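Let's do one together. I've listed all components of the complex below, 404 residues spread over four lines.
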Amino acid sequence: MLVEFSIVPLGVGSSIGDSIAKVLNIVNESGLPYKINPMGTVVEGEWNDVMELLKKCHSVVMDTSDRAITTISIDDRKGKPNRIEGKVKSVETRLGKKLSK
Amino acid sequence: MLVEFSIVPLGVGSSIGDSIAKVLNIVNESGLPYKINPMGTVVEGEWNDVMELLKKCHSVVMDTSDRAITTISIDDRKGKPNRIEGKVKSVETRLGKKLSK
Amino acid sequence: MLVEFSIVPLGVGSSIGDSIAKVLNIVNESGLPYKINPMGTVVEGEWNDVMELLKKCHSVVMDTSDRAITTISIDDRKGKPNRIEGKVKSVETRLGKKLSK
Amino acid sequence: MLVEFSIVPLGVGSSIGDSIAKVLNIVNESGLPYKINPMGTVVEGEWNDVMELLKKCHSVVMDTSDRAITTISIDDRKGKPNRIEGKVKSVETRLGKKLSK
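Okay, and this is what the predicted structure of the assembly comes out as:
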């Protein structure tokens, strides 16, 4: 399944880049396919693997803040592997043009 | 932590009440404190307990559809138990009036 | 359409109740049907009316913070008025029991 | 402000690529900076410009379906233009390495 998430610590100021960097380090070393965008991170994997990763990421943010808001969106579709590459390509093929990524 | 979630099956028509009913039956029997609203269900519990529940709910929806979109929002705050009742009361106290619930 | 939203200011500490109280005051005076829950506020109305309200709410939070994260979920269904009451009742009828609200 | 959104039509089957293609055509012609990812589209602009675009996108999906779920996440930060490019670069600089995009 495809999963996009973001984790926002509260009470640490309006700049949260340190926290995002720690999270992306964990994602980068997880071995799961991922892609970052300006609003979140998309990973692809089975429920247990993804949720274990998200728990680690959420925990590392809570280590240095009293409160965090974590948002998770799951798109689960049977029999469709490698959607982290395929979904965007599929819509470009349909439109017959390249889009901004 | 407080967790709101919703699970939307695709490919089963525009009425998804059967699917919501199955999910709420599982939530109702989970033993975790919960409250439903017109857009989702809020549960309160530890990460592992909540995620085990959400996996069950997501799975039961996938049992009868090829695709589902699951959205999860987490508000985790240290040292604040019973927020499923407390958050709304706290804002009513602050405003000095009852709000629509 | 049904719209749930939440607005989280960053850089103002981990307690954001003041900000939520200001927002709910605006919602309460808007005249749109609404219901609050521990994770957000659900309103019902046409696109323009709802978005005008959300712009006011987002702006009042930005008045006292440098950054805010606003999350909006829309469930738009043709020919279904008063869903803010009807959706929850419908699922209770289906299950044949009352749920926690 | 940065805004990520996705629009999911219900009742049209589990493949929703036609609908996504129509939406991305509108985004592509809007003139607003945007980036697509496997889970949604990020645009950058002022509240009114972005919401006018999202209304068009939501409407075009409702033209061919009875129900749609639209999710919108806003990250609004004072005095920070061009964040659609800057946010990802900033976290890469912090980590001292390139990430998957």
